[in-house]
Structures are given as structure tokens and as C-alpha cells.
Amino acid sequence: MAPLASAGGAVMSARGPEVAARVGIPLGIAITLCFGTGLISHWIQHPPGWFYWPAHPAWEYRLTQGTHVVSGVVAIPLLLVKLWAVYPRLFRRPLIGDPLRIVERGSIALLVGSVIFQLATGLFNIAQFYAWTFFFTTTHYAMAYVAFGSLAVHLAVKLPVVRAALSRPLEQPGTGRGLPRRAVLTAAGLSAGVAGVMVVGQSVPWLRPLSLLAPRSGSGPQGVPVNRSAAAAGVTTTALDPGYRLTVVVGDRQRAFTRAELEQLPQAAAELPMACVEGWSVSARWTGVPLRDLLAAVGDYRGGDVAFVSLDGGLYGRSVLPHRHVIDASTLVALGLGGADLDLDHGYPARLIAPNRPGVLQTKWLSRIEVLP
């Protein structure tokens, strides 16, 4: 039994503030990146009046949202190692103690609970697995502030402990022959790196073969993944109806276009990424009618945002495009993808494609375009 006791003691010696402080640095960076890029994504979809998001560079949302998902995935093994390192201290008595200890314990409980909630629900979201009844987007956004705020409070309370732990040597003589702290940190770094590589291929094409954890690999009709199919949206019949019309409203004028009439208008092509809130993105060549030309064919567009309405009456069946995107030459009412007509699941007969936008706002199966007053 002596060797087991010795091994157990050595394993316990690898735990403590020295490991927790060091693994906490990359964990804090990952959480900060995840928080910041998550705010950007939310503000693009639900823009406050002060928020500005440019039309270019076209790849910017692809970068920020890919960073959001990758940093969240990387944070998972780092969080597990940090919890392992401090686990015995979480139950050290007294559980309550003086006011400072109450703040410390409360911030730890709130931090651990909120971060676990954010990472778990975020991971389920990119896999499109929803084992809950609450609306993910608003809940995830609200809890992001709780997680980041509790992290800030925790750092403020624990800063003296962190500084002292970082000033001490990682390995101390006479601590046993068991698991060294350096090995724990190496394992944490390798685990985080492997987790990141196994999901980053959603956004980085040359790493796609390694993305074993990525739910979207770039496969799909015409080489672009599909989150919501025409069948799931219930638009198969209406999208293929010979009587389909796209109604465009500019001021007091409006016109209904058939698919054939849209094809007869001057066409353009744009190489733009389809970048999803779930982290995956794929560059593709889209063809169709430049939006500004389509508006001009109906009336005098004098500026303002433009609303897009889908045949899909679901949650994301409507989007609003800011003026700076409306007038951009690469913003299209797309009719084709990769040299062929749009696949039904990609929005046939017509869809919106604009630079530097989340895929959820690139409205498919368009039925109406209207310049807002």
C-alpha cells in the first residue's frame, strides 16, 4: 500500500496554485477572445444604434466567428485542468468565512457555473443539438456577461495569490517522484492545441482533413454546407412553383420578377465566404444580380436599409441589410453558385449574398425585398 500512498501524494502535489495560475493565463485569454468575438456576432445580428460593421474585408466575420468557436473549444481542456488543480481547495473549510472569503467563494461558484454553461451550450450549438427549451442566442449572450464579469471579479480577488504562485518555481525539490507539474501543464497545452486543430478546419480549408471534431467540413450541395434545408423550412413547393415571383419595393414603386426575368438582368459574380455562426465557413463563387442594380430597375434608391423576406416563415425568415452593404458591388441577389443554378437547399430560386455577414443573415428563398423608410 505504501507505493499507492506515495503515488497519491505525488499526484496531489501537482495540484495547487502553481498549476492553476499558469493554466489560468491561456484560459483567461481564450475566454476573453470568445467573449469579445461573441459580442461582435451578436451585435451584427441585433445591431445597437452605435454599432458599425463594415462590408469589407469580406473575410472579417469569417475570422471573428471562427476565432469565437475555436477559442471556446480550446478553453474546454484548459478549464478541466484548472478545475483539477484547484479541486481540493474548493472544499477547504471554512466554506464561508469572512466577507472577503464570501466574495471569493461566490465569484468562484458563479465563474465555474457560468463558464461551464457557456462552453457546454456553445459546443452543443455548433453540433445543432438543443437539449433545452430556452432560446439559445439571447441566453448565451446574457450569460456571456455573467461569465466574463465573474472572471474579472475572481481575478481581482485572487490577484495576490496568482502573483505569488507565478513567482514561485514550478517544480520544487522534495515533492516526490510522481506526476510533475510541468507534465500537467504540457498535457493541458497539448490537449488545448489538439482540440483547436480538430475544429479550426471548419474555417481554415487546408486544415479541414484534421477537423475530426468539426460538425461542418465543407461538404454539401455545390461544395457548401447546409444548416437548414428546403424540406426543413417547408418551402420546397413554393420555391419550385412556376408562379414564383420576387417582389421588390422601392419607395412607392414595386415590381414582381419571375426567375427568368431576374436571369435576363445584367449578371455579376463575387467570390465570398459563407460564414456561419457555428464557426464553419466556405468560400464560393456566387453569380446573380447586383442588389443596387435590381433596386435601380424598380425605382430611385436614395439610401437606407433594405429588408429581405423569405418564403421560410421561421425565426430567420427576415433580415435587414445596412446601406453600406446594399450599395456594395459584391452584394448580390444570387441565382447561381459555383457555375450552376442555386441548389434548392442553398436558396433557389433566389437568395441574398453579401460580404462580411453571418450566414444566418444571408436570407434564402427570397420572396420580397423592400427599402425601409
Automatic annotation (TrEMBL):
A Pfam family this chain is assigned to: Oxidored_molyb
Molecular functions per Gene Ontology: oxidoreductase activity
InterPro entries, alphabetized: Mopterin_OxRdtase_euk, OxRdtase_Mopterin-bd_dom, OxRdtase_Mopterin-bd_sf
Transmembrane parts of this sequence: 23-45, 65-87, 108-130, 142-162, 183-207
Record has Transmembrane as a keyword: yes
Record bears the keyword S-adenosyl-L-methionine: no
Domain Oxidoreductase molybdopterin-binding: 243-372
Keyword list, A-Z: Membrane, Transmembrane, Transmembrane helix
PANTHER family in UniProt: BLL0505 PROTEIN, PROTEIN-METHIONINE-SULFOXIDE REDUCTASE
Name this protein carries in UniProt: Molybdopterin-binding protein
Species name: Nocardia stercoris
